[in-house]
Amino acid sequence: xxxxxxxxxxxxxxxxxxxxxxxxxxxxxxxxxxxxxxxxxxxxxxxxxxxxxxxxxxxxxxxxxxxxxxxxxxxxxxxxxxxxxxxxxxxxxxxxxxxxxxxxxxxxxxxxxxxxxxxxxxxxxxxxxxxxxxxxxxxxxxxxxxxxxxxxxxxxxxxxxxxxxxxxxxxxxxxxxxxxxxxxxxxxxxxxxxxxxxxxxxxxxxxxxxxxxxxxxxxxxxxxxxxxxxxxxxxxxxxxxxxxxxxxxxxxxxxxxxxxxxxxxxxxxxxxxxxxxxxxxxxxxxxxxxxxxxxxxxxxxxxxxxxxxxxxxxxxxxxxxxxxxxxxxxxxxxxxxxxxxxxxxxx
Length: 347
Ligand code: GLA
Prior knowledge:
Strand content: 35-45%
Low-confidence stretches: none
Radius of gyration: 19 Å
Number of strands: 27
Order of helices and strands: EEEEEHEEEEEEEEEEEEEEEHHEEEEEEE
Shape: globular
Strand order of the largest sheet: 11-12-13-14-27-23-22-17-20
Bound molecules: alpha-D-galactopyranose
Largest sheet: 9 strands, antiparallel
Structural class: mainly beta
Distance between the termini: 26 Å
């Protein structure tokens, strides 16, 4: 694997942003020091044509002008916390409700997705580090976060480590929007999705899980066999209608590194297989992407459902749901998780 870097631009506050490009064989992935954003991932389609399978932008200004977390790393806590209320030990804290004034979402007003990370080239990957000060976005403790991107020909992996000087919340994820037909190819409706989970966590009207764990059996959430995204995303099943499509946390059975999901595109043959050791994965079908997004890479036009996300994570809203695994890292402990995105082509 080879890594090169180049300037990518400057933030509105004058901070320089670098782009690091990891290349292995005929695959390459670019990562920004802004938000640890995966800006591109180019793989050959079944005819060998290079295909960039993640949504992204060509300028820092475009990333700053959108609020869809495109390609970014998420922290300290991915997804929703109802009313912004967390409990760490005996203490309760109230965080900013940056999601329609009712939930804390993806780390708050200025989450890790908008921070500048420090990059170091390792022999086998790109290391990004961010020091989140005590009290940042209302969270207790100074949290030192490391994310390592690695690329082999067929697998892009993100490994996270974090340590805090006080007990705190830690639930790190990545918010890439995949489009296996190529980032500029339009809706992902005809692409196939399979999620290796029997259960999911239904949402209340605030789009945060209720605490219930439900079976996927007999519902549009049953993705145990591959189906087209558009087979289920406009269903009038209450949970789908509520979220305007898939925007739900699935619970892959078991623990440790295990299969989570597989998606594929019939046109390009490009297939993505996700494995992780996290407790859950948010399947999000880009229901909130809008045609007023900034112009995408190479003048691409992005709109609703032009990408899908598989955000490996702790189950959302865990503080209001005591039976859920709690995304707490204790002082002195090391948080550690890994997610692998494996590329292949089907004939
Ligand atoms: C996650 C959430 C969605 C939405 C996106 C960002 O996937 O679950 O509801 O907030 O992030 O737009």
